[in-house]
Task: inverse folding
C-alpha cells in the first residue's frame, strides 16, 4: 500500500518506518540469534558429556595428560597416562565450559544488539525500496 504513494509521501514514511521497525526488529532478531547460539553450544557440551561419555572422557584425559607430560621424559608418558586415568575415573559435568559460554554470550549481547539496531533499518529500507521498484516496474 505504501508503494503506491507518491514520492513526497513515500520517502518520509519509508524513513520513519525503517527507523521504527528496523531498530526494534534488528535488536530483537540479533538478541534471538545470541540466545540460539548460547543454547545450541550449551546443548552440544551437554550432549558430548551425556551421550558420548567415552569420547568426551578421552579428550578430557588427553588434555590433563598433555599438561602433566610437559618437561617429563618420554619414558614416563604411559605411566603418567595411567596415573591420570586412575586419579580421574570419570569426566566431571562441563560446568566451566557452560559458564564460560554464558559469560561470553552476555559479553557479546550488547554489541550484537547495537549491530542489529544499525543493520535493521538498512535492511528494512532496502526491502521496501525493492518492493516499490517491483511495483513501479512490473
Result:
Amino acid at each position: 500500500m505504501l508503494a503506491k504513494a507518491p514520492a513526497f509521501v513515500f520517502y518520509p514514511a519509508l524513513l520513519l518506518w525503517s527507523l521504527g521497525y528496523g531498530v526494534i526488529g534488528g535488536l530483537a532478531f540479533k538478541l534471538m540469534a545470541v540466545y540460539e547460539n548460547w543454547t545450541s553450544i550449551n546443548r552440544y557440551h551437554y550432549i558430548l558429556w551425556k551421550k558420548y561419555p567415552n569420547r568426551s572422557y578421552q579428550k578430557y584425559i588427553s588434555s590433563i595428560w598433555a599438561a602433566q607430560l610437559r618437561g617429563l621424559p618420554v619414558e614416563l608418558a604411559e605411566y603418567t597416562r595411567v596415573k591420570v586415568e586412575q586419579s580421574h575415573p570419570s569426566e566431571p559435568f562441563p560446568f566451566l565450559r557452560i559458564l564460560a559460554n554464558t559469560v561470553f554470550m552476555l559479553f557479546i549481547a550488547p554489541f550484537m544488539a547495537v549491530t542489529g539496531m544499525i543493520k535493521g533499518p538498512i535492511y528494512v529500507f532496502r526491502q521496501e525500496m525493492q518492493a516499490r521498484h517491483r511495483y513501479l516496474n512490473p
Q: What stands out?
A: The chain has a mean pLDDT of 87.
